[in-house]
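Trying the structure run again after the queue cleared.
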Amino acid sequence: MRRSRASAGPDLGNRSVLTVCVILATLMQSLDSTIANVALPYMRGPMGASQDQINWVLTSYIVAAAIMTAPTGFLAARFGRTRLFVTSVVGFTLASILCGLAQSLGQIVIFRVLQGVFGAALVPLSQAVMFDIYPPERRGSAMALWGMGVMIGPILGPTLGGWLTENYNWRWVFYINVPFGMLAAIGLLTFLKETAHTGAVKLDWIGFGALSLAIGAFQTMLDRGELLDWFSSREIIVEACLAGLGLYCFVVQLALAPRPFLSPRLFRDLNFVVGITFIFIVGLILYATLALLTPYLQTVMDYPVVTAGVALAPRGAGTMLAMLVCGRLVGRVNVRLLVSFGFLATAYALYEMTSWTPDVSEWTVINIGFIQGVSIGFVFVPLSTTTFATLPSELRTQATGIYSLMRNIGSAIGISVTGALLQSNTQINHAQIAGAVTPFNRALNAGAILRFWNPVGAHGAAALNEEVTRQATIIAYVDDFKLMLILALASLPLVLLIRSTKRQAPGDSHDAVME
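Done. Tokens:
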């Protein structure tokens, strides 16, 4: 990397402005991963789309972003990190405007693909820049600030999306990106110094194509699996086979190619391998839990959209507080202890959630959400710091791309698996409970119950079936929470593999990217 013009060190004012711009870019992308979800029902009418068709608004974005995350390191080396960063921000902002202006399903799907293509690089680039502009002793605090944008965006997305949709219309869930994008682009273009780059860098097209096939097919399979009843669908079987074939070809290319798409040196660094494994598990547990909680509050506990958003908001407050505290503890407290505390806090929150019923108080929901937010902060900050601390600086942008990709794949798998289990377990529980609904069950023959749930009459039978479904759903949610609890506890021994990061990575230079 080039050194800055100011030999005395980086300008603190420029660093502060860059920090704000980087966080804005991160927040814009992470917010968009969930903000459009609540607007989908409102898009169906104007777009004339079925439920199956409107889901492509989400699928197209997820698949495009997943595929284009991996080549971030190559693109930065080929064209320069600042040029790539600014282009990504501007492209994402323009694509957001086009999504808001879309008049047909085809248009919005194409524009969402563009959003995913341009937005894919925002998170890994922002993390790499934050890691470089701060000295080693302050990287814990830097990762805490950056992590707020990454983790709080998906939490606030449904609430903000619901509010914008109710008070304006669905198009504003895309227009909201415009001011963030403009400010971030101007700041980055003004204060972020270009890194060394060369046109001699060549892309391993075979490796990139194989990985793209694996990621695209896998993400599409996960996104459409529940809708198509998983492996009873020929489409899902074909996508699973394509994903496996792509992964196999990528691994062979990585092992045999003289200049593979990803540097094998990345996977020789133990901290990096442990870090991407942990962030995969974090995405799987925490994003899946959040995806479960929103429909739980709205469908089982009958919370309105805004009330559900308010109940979930303390999770973001807990994350912000924990990240600020943890950012100061990194470097002073053993990283293994911080990560262990975060996973134990997650396990405690999930354990409490296994005893939830629709009668649980709103205060309990808020309290447990806050604890989960704290756990996110205590896991995310030390992981974001130690995963890259022992890597050479020239591999950092490539590494942050893989780190973001693993988090996204983990969250996709977690959401799909818990959703599929919720659906299947609800059906199983419904059959078991319905088996006890017989004329010989004395509990159903009481006067008041018989009037409301009389299986002989049409209205009574419908009311009884609705209650059985409700009870079956509650049990299915508890089963999902138990699964997440077991996974959180089973992941704890991995902390023993994290190495000390007191030494500085080779070629490290924190003032290399500032004017």
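The radius of gyration is 24 Å. Worth checking whether this holds up in the mutant runs.
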